[in-house]
Amino acid sequence: MKSLWREDEASQLNTDRARCAYAARLLGQGPHLVAPSLGGAAVKTSTPNLYGEAEPVIAVTLCDQDLAALTAEDLIALRLPAVKRLLDLDVIGNTRLMNEIAVSRLNADAPIPPTDILLYAALPGAYTLLIQPVALLAIVSAVQGEERLRSIYGDALPVVEYATMGLPLARACNRTLRDRDPREVKGILLRGHGLAVFADSAQAAYEQAIELVSRAEAYLDEHNVLDMDLSIDIGDAVDPPIRADLAEVRKSVSDIAGAPMTMTLRRNVWSLGLVRHANVAVIADHPPLIAQAALIGCVPMLGRDIESYYAAHKHAPRIVLDPDLGVCAMGRTASESARIAACYRHSVEVIIRALALGGYEPLPDKAYTDAEARAMLACAAPRRVFDGEVAMVTGGASGIGKACVAALLERGASVVSLDINPAVETLFDQPGYLGIHCDLTDEAAVLAAFETTAHTFGGLDMIVLNAGIFPQGVRVEALETALWQKVMRINLDHNVVILREAYPLLKHAPGDGRVVLNASKNVLAPGAGAAAYSAAKAAVTQLARVAALEWGKNRIRVNMVHPDAVFDTGIWTEDVLQARAAHYGMTVQQYKTRNVLGVELNSRYVAELVAEMLGPLFGKITGAQIAVDGGSDRII
Question: Which end of the chain, N or C, is more open, meaning fewer C-beta atoms within 10 Å of its C-beta?
Answer without folding.
Answer: C
